């Protein structure tokens, strides 16, 4: 799962399902996203899309969380992205909720993996414990823009870069994937990918299908000393 394409909320073409991304992230993070993406994830499943299908869920304490899971019952994803993950307990609670969902939706126990999106100071400070919180935990995803906003600083500031390094270390220690944040400047995409690979990341998210080829090319040659589960 070297590349993760974040599916936009509007103007979605099914050709996005064919760009060769390792995973597609569908936004179920609020009621609007649930309404827009429920049919999309079903269509991706029906068309036998080769990418892993991930649903970005609301926080566990959000009333929309139960609605998101219920909506997914007819098209169970391969994994879920927990937005603004904070602490090992949150991941463990999500794992328990997914176990119930799998049983009720006739999905194999443990089949749905967790990608923890770390985008808050509390989340990054707990990333080492969080990365080992559940056997379902598959990857840590760095939320650069949201973290910078929470800190009230620039995206390339020292605290943000330190947090990014901590995420890579935590993922490596736990045998999980470290996924870098999307690149907002197409002209710097390859440079960012090379830097991320150098810094211990094993993949990168994208907001444009055009980015997938570059991401796959750079990370496909990655020979990391640790083996992500």
UniProtKB/TrEMBL annotation:
Signal peptide: none
Gene Ontology BP terms: oxaloacetate metabolic process
Keyword set includes Metal-binding: yes
The keyword Magnesium appears for this protein: yes
InterPro entries the UniProt entry points to: Aldolase/citrate-lyase_domain, Pyrv/PenolPyrv_kinase-like_dom, Pyrv_kinase-like_dom_sf
Domain of life: Bacteria
UniProt xrefs under Gene3D superfamilies: Phosphoenolpyruvate-binding domains
Keywords associated with the record: Magnesium, Metal-binding
Record domain HpcH/HpaI aldolase/citrate lyase: where: 10-185
Molecular function as annotated in GO: catalytic activity; magnesium ion binding
Cofactors named for this entry: Mg(2+)
Name assigned to this protein: HpcH/HpaI aldolase/citrate lyase domain-containing protein
